[in-house]
Amino acid sequence: MRRLTLILMVLCAPLPAMAHKLIAGVFASGSSIEGEIGFSNGDMATDQ
Predict the structure, then answer these.
(1) Which of 19, 42, 46, 48 is the most exposed place for a label (fewest CB within 10 A)?
(2) What is the pLDDT, as a whole number, of residue 18?
(3) Is the distance from CB of 47 to CB of 37 less than 8 angstroms?
(4) Which residues of the chain carry a pLDDT beneath 70?
C-alpha cells in the first residue's frame, strides 16, 4: 500500500513548465510603426 501511495504522489506532483521567453521588437518604418515577435529559440510567432 505504501508503494502505491508513493507512486501516486510522484505521478501527481507538479512538473516545471517548459516555456519560451518572448522577444519583441518595434521600429519605425516611414510613417508606420512595425514590430516582430518571436521566441528565445529563434522561432517567429505566428497567427494561430
Answers:
(1) 48
(2) 67
(3) no
(4) 18-20, 48
Question: 32 forms bridges with which residues in the sheet?
Answer: 29
User: Rounded to 5 degrees, what are φ and ψ at 6?
Assistant: -65, -45
In Å, what is the CA distance from 31 to each residue of 4, 27, 34?
A: 66, 11, 10
| 3-state secondary structure at position 19 | coil
Amino acid occupying residue 32: S
CA distance 32 to 8: 56
Number of alpha carbons in the 13 Å side-chain half-sphere of residue 23: 8
Residue 44 main-chain phi, psi, to 5 deg: -85, 145
